[in-house]
Amino acid sequence: MMTYDEDVMRRLKRMEGQVRGVLRMMEEGKNCKDVITQLSAVRSAADKAMAYIVASNLEHCILEEQEKGQDSGKLVKEAVELLLKSR
């Protein structure tokens, strides 16, 4: 089972606050450009969080595979595919 550290949880909580801020901007009728700018920031934060989670998981799995004396190449390929799918 994968465990998630406090850094990734903080990132997601920050994103949650950003989304609430975007909703508030929309309720207040703020400029479309400003709303899109904030949504872009949320998307960027989500991309970084996903990359962080995949990288952390990959590192953990590679170490496990190496301890077992197994090839970790398949894990790297799966991680790359996961990142590409998330785009």
TrEMBL record:
Signal peptide: none annotated. It comes from the Bacteria. Pfam families: Trns_repr_metal (PF02583). InterPro entries: Metal_Tscrpt_repr, Metal_Tscrpt_repr_sf. This is Metal-sensitive transcriptional regulator. The lineage of its organism: Bacteria, Bacillati, Bacillota, Bacilli, Bacillales.
